[in-house]
Amino acid sequence: MDIFGVSPQLLLGQLLLGLINGSFYAMLSLGLAVIFGLMNVVNFAHGAQYMLGAFVAWLLLTMFGVPYWGALVIAPVVIALFGMALERFLLRRLQNEDHLFGLLATYAVALIVEGLVLHGYGSSGLPYTNPIPGGVMLGFMFLPYYRLWVVAISLVLCLGTWLLIERTKLGSYLRAANERSELVEAFGINVPKLVTLTYGFGVGLAALGGVLAAPIYSVSPSMGTNMIVVVFAVVVIGGMGSIAGAIVSGYALGLAEGLTKVFYPAGANMTIFALMILALMIWPSGLFSKAQ
Fold this sequence. Notes:
Layout: H1 8-39, H2 46-64, H3 68-89, H4 99-121, E1 135-137, E2 142-144, H5 145-167, H6 169-179, H7 181-186, H8 191-213, H9 223-238, H10 243-263, H11 271-282
Antiparallel strand pairs: 1-2
Helix pairs in contact: 1-5, 1-8, 1-9, 1-10, 2-3, 2-4, 2-8, 2-9, 3-8, 5-6, 9-10, 9-11
C-alpha cells in the first residue's frame, strides 16, 4: 500500500540511506561539539581533517600496502597528532581572544591543507577499495555490508564518546577545565595538556570519519568542504558544544534529508539549512544547549 503516493520500498530505502548519511553527520558534528564545548574553539579545519583521514588511508593502501583495518587505526592517530601540534603552536596563542580569531585561523589552515593536496594529487576523486564486499537483500533494497558497518561503528563511537564526556571522571575534569581552569590546575591537573589531548581527540574523530567515508565516496580535496557546511548546520541546530545535541541532530537530520528526497527531491539539499533557520528562530542557542 502506497504512503502519500510513495511506495513503502522507496520510503524505507531512502530512510536507510538517510541513516547512513546521518552516521557521518553525527560523527563529524560530535568532533566539532567536543572541541567547541571543551575548548571554545570553532574548528573550521574540521572538514580538512576529515579529508586528511581519507587521504592518509588512501596513501597507506596505495604506497605502503596497509589494509583498511590498519588504516582505521593509523590514519586517525596521525591526524590527531597533527591536530595536537596545531593546537599547541597556533590555537593556544588565541585561546584568550574572540572566537572569530580561532575560526579565521582554522579556516586558513583548512585552505592551506586543501590547497596542498589539490596541488599534489589534483581535483579528481581517488578510488578506495571496498574492504567488506557483498551485502544483504532487505526486500526493499540491497544493503551493502560496508554501509551497515559504518552505521554500527558510528553508533558505538557516538555512545562511547557521550559516556566518556558525561559519565566519567575524565569527562568531569574536561568540563571543569573549560569553566574554571585555574581551579582544576590547583588540584594538580595539567590543563594545557588536557586541552591538547581534547583537541587531538576531536580531530581524530574527524579523521576516523574520513577513513570510513573513503570506500563510499571518492577521496578528493573537496570532500571536507562539501561536508563541513552541513555539519556546522547540524551543530548549530543541536547547540554549540552539546554532545547529545550533535549526536541526535546528526542522525535526525540525516533521516529528514532522506524523507525529503522521497517527497520533494529538488529540496533535499536545502532541508538541513531550512531546519537550521527554523531552529534558530525558535531556539537561538540550539535544541540541546545548556543555555536553554
